[in-house]
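User: Is it possible to get a 3D structure for a protein together with its bound compound? The compound here is protoporphyrin IX containing FE. I've pasted both below.
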Amino acid sequence: MSFSASPLPKPAGRRPVLLVAFHWITVLALVAAVTLVLGREAVDEKALRTLLLNLHKSFGLLLLGLGLARVVLRVALHPLPAVAELPALARFGAAATHGLLYLLLLAVPACGWLLASSLGKPAGFFGLFTLPSLVDIDEDLGDLASELHETGAYLLLALIGLHVAAALHHHFILKDQTLRSMLPGLHQRP
Ligand code: HEM
Ligand code: HEM
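Assistant: Yes, that's possible. Here is the predicted structure of the complex:
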């Protein structure tokens, strides 16, 4: 058996591992946050409703932390190497969608935190710590934060639908490296 001393060539268009890890942890945390808060609608028992909302807030705050970390990482790594040759309009569309996704990933949980604060409710993180309240109790502000939180959340979900459709289009129609570049360890074409 022989071992080569030369390192394996880095696959073209590979995304930094932290960016890929944070991307997929974001997906899992978002599925959890949305499932918990929507599943709560089907529950009558008060203690269970409280637990589901607390878990929703915890995953939401995890998303806020991840969103901040991703923005910092993304700015630090700018510009990312292109993994596919795209016309200018498609490049603009992708950049605009990604920018809006980042914005909503920060704004939606921030509005959730504001909503909890304005209702005088805690914004706890898995029982480990509680974030300070952003404002004094204020019903009108609570209504506004609730509207913004809900509208932002559904806008985020709609954009994610578009984003996933674009990723699948790249993979199955354009047959380029875009999706592979975001898959952990599976990014090389055979
Ligand atoms: C990206 C992160 C988040 C998403 C996608 C999200 C999404 C949602 C959705 C879809 C709803 C249901 C809206 C409705 O139809 O009534 C909701 C409600 C709510 N969220 Fe979030 N949320 C996030 C983060 C947070 C955070 C960080 C907090 C607080 C720390 C929070 C607190 C709340 C509260 C208090 C409600 C109202 C629940 C109720 O009274 O029924 N959310 N959220
Ligand atoms: C919670 C759901 C998701 C969110 C919030 C999200 C968010 C993002 C963001 C902000 C980027 C830009 C990364 C950067 O360049 O800085 C990105 C890239 C990407 N995402 Fe997602 N994503 C989600 C789900 C998915 C899913 C389910 C897929 C696959 C089906 C996917 C495939 C990709 C691909 C392929 C890229 C790289 C695009 C490129 O380099 O041009 N994403 N995602």
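DSSP finds four helices and two strands in the chain. The domain at 17-80+94-182 is CATH 1.20.950 (Fumarate Reductase Cytochrome B subunit).
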